[in-house]
Specification:
Helix content is 43%, strand content 24%. It is an alpha+beta fold. It has a domain of 78 residues: Roll (SH3 type barrels), CATH 2.30.30.30. The chain has a 5-stranded antiparallel beta sheet with strand order 4-3-2-1-5. One of its GO terms (biological process) is ribosomal large subunit biogenesis.
Length: 133
């Protein structure tokens, strides 16, 4: 199986660090073998250079020509509902769960622990009955 995610104009990527950590950006143009020009006018990320180390490629892609301006990118993002598609991906859900767990207070952690114990007791009881048969 070959590669499916390429660094190309229109590829939607996730910023890994810096000021815009966690935001989606669209590659407008490839500058050289280590940097791209990207922006996201919908989320307020200005057009700037990003190194590949700062980006995670996603499977999402919009149809824009290389070097497209911010207005064209904005229209295509809204037309293709990229935020909705991103929210439905497994990686976005995993990041949301990680963020929710990070923001838990003591009582939330306690409720989570008790729910896990109850679930494990039920599984253990089912396994015990299956072993007897």
């Amino acid at each position: 199986m070959g590669f499916t995610k390429f660094v190309e104009a229109g590829r939607v990527t996730l910023v890994n660090g810096g000021k815009y950590d966690g935001k989606l950006v669209v590659i407008a143009n490839v500058v050289n073998q280590s940097r791209v020009l990207a922006d996201n006018p919908v989320d307020g990320v200005p057009r700037q250079l990003f190194s590949f180390a700062q980006l995670t490629l996603t499977s999402l892609k919009i149809n824009i020509p290389p070097g497209a301006r911010s207005g064209a990118i904005r229209k295509q993002l809204e037309k293709d509902d990229i935020k909705g598609k991103w929210g439905a991906t497994a990686y976005a859900k995993k990041l949301a769960l990680r963020e929710a767990k990070r923001n838990m207070n003591d009582f939330d952690r306690y409720k989570s622990k008790v729910a896990k114990q109850v679930r494990n007791r039920k599984v253990k009881a089912i396994v015990k009955t299956l072993k007897k048969k």
